[in-house]
């Protein structure tokens, strides 16, 4: 029997967590042979609701769940955490852009960065889900001295998964037939879902669709999918967001499949002309618990324009919260 992995989850009484916690505890994230201890963080007013969620976790009698810690103190919830899923933050409502949340959510990630640095496992793998996820991850990274900045990532996997299905549906294929899409840049309406390196059943995707569909349908549909869900549900995506978080960590910890490329929001390192200093959606592969930014994807003139726009937005977001960068 493997030793349990400690997984901290913030916003544990929220709607994403209502799906996420049960999937982690059932082994979807770290494997069906990996016990877990859930360390749940909420704000004080939500502790009672969290109690109810924990009763439900208990009532599942999950074989892999080896303990649950619940606290409103990050120093307790992050203690010795091996993995931290930072979901706790306000969601946007109709008519807002995700960056409108920076003012209310940004500050959460200064305190949580410090607490993680103080008490978590030094190699803790962090995924920021709370919006605006890329810039919140940057804030966290700048406030977490002693943690490896490479281990602080933001969620672009939902955008990646959305792009796969939109492309598959268009050409009458299945998402599993699609390889090498990328959601470059920011998890926002400037992100660039790119199919120029993608294949469907081994055929170049760009030869199966026309530019008009790309510009007027595919790109805006993926860019604005979150808003479309809010419009339809009255609430932001939850189960699909939880699924993407599970996918992100599973790929990172257990590795990507042979030939599989996934999108992760990671610190920019100069790859593809994006200077250091932002969290950027890049194509990645993972092996032995580490991710690598895939080099050599073709960036044509069409793609360059979109990539530059999303990079510019990330710089603007960063400039607007300079005071939180430590
Ligand atoms: P929700 O309002 O249902 O739940 C958020 C929970 O976080 C609440 O229970 C709240 O009490 C808690 N919380 C607030 N501040 C906290 C803090 N400082 N510490 C711990 N917990 C705190 O929202 P949700 O639908 O679960 O969404 C959570 C966040 O995830 C939102 O910001 C949303 O926009 C974002 N999101 C991101 C993606 C992505 O792809 N990156 C996808 C979907 C949603
Ligand atoms: C999403 O992409 O569904 C989330 O980021 C929620 C949102 O605000 O759109």
TrEMBL record:
One of its GO terms (biological process) is tricarboxylic acid cycle. Residues 5-152 form the Lactate/malate dehydrogenase N-terminal domain. Gene3D superfamilies: Lactate dehydrogenase/glycoside hydrolase, family 4, C-terminal, NAD(P)-binding Rossmann-like Domain. The active site is at residue 187. It catalyses: (S)-malate + NAD(+) = oxaloacetate + NADH + H(+). This is Malate dehydrogenase. Its EC number is 1.1.1.37. It is an enzyme of class 1 (oxidoreductase). Residues 157-323 form the Lactate/malate dehydrogenase C-terminal domain. Catalyzes the reversible oxidation of malate to oxaloacetate. NAD(+) binds at residues 11-17, 105, 112, 129-131. It comes from the Bacteria. Belongs to the LDH/MDH superfamily. MDH type 2 family. InterPro entries: L-lactate/malate_DH, Lactate/malate_DH_C, Lactate/malate_DH_N, Lactate_DH/Glyco_Ohase_4_C, Malate_DH_type2, NAD(P)-bd_dom_sf. It comes from Aquella oligotrophica. Substrate binds at residues 92, 98, 131, 162. The keyword Oxidoreductase applies. The keyword Isomerase does not apply. One of its GO terms (molecular function) is L-malate dehydrogenase (NAD+) activity.
């Amino acid at each position: 029997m493997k030793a349990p992995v400690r997984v901290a989850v913030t916003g544990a009484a929220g709607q994403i967590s209502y799906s996420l916690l049960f999937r982690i505890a059932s082994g979807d994230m770290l494997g069906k042979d990996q016990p877990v201890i859930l360390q749940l963080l909420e704000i004080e007013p939500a502790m009672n609701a969290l109690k109810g969620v924990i009763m439900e976790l208990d009532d599942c009698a999950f074989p892999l769940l080896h303990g649950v810690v619940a606290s409103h103190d990050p120093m307790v919830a992050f203690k010795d955490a091996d993995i931290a899923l930072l979901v706790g933050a306000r969601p946007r409502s109709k008519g807002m852009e995700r960056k409108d949340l920076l003012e209310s959510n940004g500050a959460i990630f200064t305190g949580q960065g410090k607490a993680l640095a103080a008490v978590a496992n030094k190699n803790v793998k962090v995924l920021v889900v709370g919006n605006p996820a890329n810039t919140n991850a940057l804030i966290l990274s700048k406030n977490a001295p002693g943690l490896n900045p490479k281990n602080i990532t933001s969620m672009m996997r939902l955008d990646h998964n959305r792009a796969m299905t939109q492309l598959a549906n268009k050409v009458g294929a299945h998402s599993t037939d699609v390889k090498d899409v990328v959601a470059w840049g920011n998890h926002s309406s400037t992100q660039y879902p790119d199919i120029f390196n993608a294949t469907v059943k081994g055929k170049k995707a760009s030869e199966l669709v026309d530019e008009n569909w790309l510009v007027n349908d595919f790109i805006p549909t993926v860019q604005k999918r979150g808003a479309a869900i809010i419009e339809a549900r009255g609430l932001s995506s939850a189960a699909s967001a939880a699924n993407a978080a599970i996918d992100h960590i599973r790929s990172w910890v257990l590795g990507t499949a042979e030939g599989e490329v996934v999108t992760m929001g990671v610190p920019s390192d100069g790859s593809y002309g994006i200077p250091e200093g932002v969290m950027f959606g890049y194509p990645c592969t993972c092996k032995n618990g580490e991710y690598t930014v895939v080099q050599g994807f073709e960036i044509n003139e069409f793609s360059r324009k979109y990539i530059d726009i999303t990079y510019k937005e990330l710089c603007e977001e960063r400039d607007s919260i300079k005071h939180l960068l430590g």
